[in-house]
């Protein structure tokens, strides 16, 4: 039984009909029709009042109706274009602040260039230039007249005379301390005051240019490739650096936000005898390119590749080391590429030119595009595959649109789906329920894991080369795992662990790579860091996690790298398969290192023993000699010695045995023992098992007479 007053204040908003259900009571308010229906079950008695509250004031339904009809209703629903979304949330794509944006712009352009050159099996040649543009130059570029400040107090960096004096005094003090420290040989630490005063509004601008020898782009596709967020050519299941169709557009969005200047693209493909030139910016609200100029130009030099130029706000000072670090690590993981990096400014002492020469002509195999693994698909993807397939019936669809489903397996799967399904049924006319059934079965059924043939890992050799180049370690071990799978996506983990080296800090020095991209940010949350820090018992491999200089290099490649965020900065720790593969790869390196470390320790101990024994030789031989001499001097005729001893004493008396001869003999003995131990050590460590390689030097004619020339680790067979 419902009793008492029921006050329902309803803010009408846009709801045309609002149904309130309070237990057994049902109120149906239809504002448009101006009616309120109250359905009360017959066994209930209703007593009370209902008041409607429009914009805070109580109005009668009649009044509310007349107001609604006067004013067109405003909808709260709004839509954002992808470009708008990323412009507003640019940090998720790595454009957090001007400095980071400069870094990410370089990254995105370099990675596009490498993808492009590798896609046509061309050894990449990438030139990247960052040109600093002073404020006046920037203003003249955009046609803005430089203006002197008139009302100085208006500016964010305005200082009163008193504040200025205080700052200068502080700076002078800091300089004094620095000079004192320098005199005492202490390392100078830059104090904030010494950095100088910089206002918020003092922006720095840079022209970033990236030129490559890659594939180039089809003339007509260029505007969409650079002016439409979420458009790209790398969406398939293929190991590429790019994935989201976002990077180049983010550079343009940032340039639009910070300088308002367009992006310029030049490109020439193999089959084109012209250069496509395009200057464009992006209509953020519509997410479409806004083309300023798009034309074909003469290509006298038969140049092939692409050149992208963008002017953005940045901060070279704070991100200099990150950018150079990135380039260096990129050169490490891409030794078959040649990079030329230049920073150019008006102050020649600030300029930087670094050439990372190609260290090998051998490019890893080209990653292949693959099909979806049946256990990795969701309902949406199944629908998309059906919409896009050229196959007619269900059997062909299952057999051809997925990996690891043979014809006979597809037949078994269809049989298992139930009586509503048949091999010949038209795949495009499947009902929603049937699609759900297919999805359920694909998730539950057993399929062979996808193989890693479509992947192209960096290779143990490149990893080892990289570690040696970066850290110059005392010892290094590498391991390349076989392909594994997470959520139906194949991946390969390779690792290298080193100990020692010059300019390496104590503890763990972690280097991460994903699809051959160096990852420099968000290290703490990354699967590699967490594994190395928390899941490896370094002590058990005779490695001291705190005191030893440990280098950990891990490279992961996959058709889908599960990056956290579109900024591609780290791989989360939540995918068990990846986390355990990383752990296993690091452990395998550690196992190799342990045996090396143990052998090294044994060798060190052995050397120590030799040194110790040698140290006692003079005293020992002199003591032994003295005993012998005394025995010989005091030997009476009555004394009886065995023949050997008699002979020994005679030799002492004839000076055939002296302190020197004893020392000599002992030294030889120690040498002999050491040699034998060294031999044993060499045998144990497999030096004698060094791989033998037979080289045949064969003459073009003549009989097959041959001579074998044996060297310690090689046999030359010379055919005469
Ligand atoms: N230097 C280049 N040479 C050839 N094609 C390029 C180059 N730069 C960009 N492209 C083309 O433009 C497309 C868009 O590039 P963009 O960087 O925006 O996205 P993506 O590389 O596909 O993915 P991601 O957002 O992960 O970088 C690429 O897919 C590629 O086809
Ligand atoms: Mg890209």
UniProtKB/TrEMBL annotation:
It holds the Pfam family Topo-VIb_trans. InterPro entries: HATPase_C_sf, Ribosomal_Su5_D2-typ_SF, Ribosomal_uS13-like_H2TH, Ribsml_uS5_D2-typ_fold_subgr, TopoVI_B, TopoVI_B_transducer. One of its GO terms (molecular function) is DNA topoisomerase type II (double strand cut, ATP-hydrolyzing) activity. Its EC number is 5.6.2.2. Residues 51-79 are annotated as: Disordered. It is found in: Nucleus. Its main location: nucleus. Gene3D superfamilies: 1.10.8.50, 3.30.230.10, Histidine kinase-like ATPase, C-terminal domain (3.30.565.10). Keywords: ATP-binding, DNA-binding, Isomerase, Nucleotide-binding, Nucleus, Topoisomerase. Residues 450-609 form the DNA topoisomerase VI subunit B transducer domain. ATP binds at residues 112, 212, 233-234, 242-249, 568. One of its GO terms (cellular component) is nucleus. It is an enzyme of class 5 (isomerase). Belongs to the TOP6B family. This is DNA topoisomerase 6 subunit B. It comes from Clitoria ternatea (Butterfly pea).
């Amino acid at each position: 039984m419902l009793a008492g007053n029921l006050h329902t204040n309803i803010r009408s908003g846009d709801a045309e009909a609002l149904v309130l259900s309070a237990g057994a009571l049902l109120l149906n308010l239809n504002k448009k029709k101006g009616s309120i229906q109250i359905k009360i079950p017959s066994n209930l008695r209703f007593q009370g009042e209902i008041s409607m509250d429009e914009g805070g004031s109580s109005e009668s339904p009649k009044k509310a109706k007349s107001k609604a009809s006067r004013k067109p209703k405003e909808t709260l629903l709004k839509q954002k274009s992808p470009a708008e979304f990323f412009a507003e949330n640019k940090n998720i794509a790595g454009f957090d602040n001007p400095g980071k944006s400069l870094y990410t712009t370089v990254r995105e352009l370099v990675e596009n260039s490498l993808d492009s050159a590798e896609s046509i099996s061309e050894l990449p040649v990438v030139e990247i230039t960052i040109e600093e543009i002073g404020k006046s130059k920037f203003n003249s570029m955009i046609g803005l007249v430089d203006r002197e400040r008139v009302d100085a107090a208006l500016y964010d960096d305005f200082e009163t005379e008193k504040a200025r004096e205080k700052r200068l005094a502080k700076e002078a003090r800091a300089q004094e301390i620095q000079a004192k420290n320098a005199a005492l040989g202490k390392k100078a630490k830059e104090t904030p005051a010494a950095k100088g005063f910089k206002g918020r509004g003092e922006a720095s601008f840079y022209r970033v240019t990236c030129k490559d020898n890659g594939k180039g782009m089809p003339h007509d596709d260029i505007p969409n490739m650079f002016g439409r967020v979420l458009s790209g050519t790398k969406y398939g299941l293929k190991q590429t650096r790019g994935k989201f169709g976002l990077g180049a557009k983010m550079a343009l969005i940032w340039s639009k936000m910070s300088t308002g200047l367009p992006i310029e693209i030049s490109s020439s493909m193999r089959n084109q005898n012209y250069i496509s030139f395009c200057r464009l910016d992006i209509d953020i609200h519509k997410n479409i390119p806004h083309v300023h100029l798009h034309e074909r130009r003469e290509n006298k030099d038969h140049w092939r590749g692409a050149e992208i130029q963008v002017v953005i706000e940045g901060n070279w000072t704070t991100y200099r080391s990150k950018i150079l670090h990135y380039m260096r690590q990129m050169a490490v993981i891409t030794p078959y590429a040649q990079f030329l990096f230049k920073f150019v400014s008006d102050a020649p002492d600030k300029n930087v030119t670094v050439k990372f020469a190609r260290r090998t002509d051998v490019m890893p195999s080209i990653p292949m595009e693959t099909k979806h693994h049946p256990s990795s698909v969701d309902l949406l993807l199944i629908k998309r595959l059906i919409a896009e397939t050229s196959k007619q019936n269900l059997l062909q669809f299952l057999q051809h649109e997925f990996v690891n489903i043979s014809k006979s397996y597809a037949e078994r799967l269809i049989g298992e789906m139930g009586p509503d399904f048949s091999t010949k049924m038209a795949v495009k006319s499947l009902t929603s329920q049937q699609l759900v059934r297919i999805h359920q079965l694909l998730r539950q059924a057993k399929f062979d894991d996808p193989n890693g043939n479509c992947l192209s890992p960096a290779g143990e050799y490149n990893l080892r080369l990289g570690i040696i180049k970066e850290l110059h370690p005392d010892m290094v071990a590498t391991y390349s795992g076989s392909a594994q799978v997470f959520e139906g996506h194949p991946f390969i983990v390779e690792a290298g662990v080193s100990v020692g080296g010059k300019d390496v800090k104590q503890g763990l020095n972690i280097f991460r790579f994903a699809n051959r991209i160096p990852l420099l940010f968000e290290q703490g949350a990354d699967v590699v860091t967490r594994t190395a820090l928390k899941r490896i018992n370094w002590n058990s491999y005779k490695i001291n996690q705190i005191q030893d200089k440990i280098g950990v290099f891990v490279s992961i490649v996959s058709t889908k790298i599960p990056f956290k965020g579109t900024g591609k900065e780290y791989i989360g720790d939540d995918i068990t398969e990846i986390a355990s593969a990383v752990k296993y790869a690091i452990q395998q390196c550690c196992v190799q290192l342990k045996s090396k470390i143990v052998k090294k320790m044994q060798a060190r101990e052995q050397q120590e023993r030799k040194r110790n024994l040698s140290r006692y030789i003079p005293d020992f031989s002199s003591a032994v000699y003295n005993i012998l001499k005394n025995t010989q001097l005091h030997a009476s005729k009555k004394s009886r010695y065995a023949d050997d001893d008699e002979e020994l004493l005679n030799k002492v008396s004839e000076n055939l045995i002296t302190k020197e001869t004893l020392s000599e003999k002992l030294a030889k003995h120690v040498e002999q023992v050491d040699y034998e131990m060294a031999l044993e050590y060499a045998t144990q460590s497999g030096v004698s098992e060094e791989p033998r390689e037979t080289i045949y030097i064969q003459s073009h004619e003549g009989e097959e007479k041959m001579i074998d020339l044996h060297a310690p680790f090689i046999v030359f067979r010379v055919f005469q």
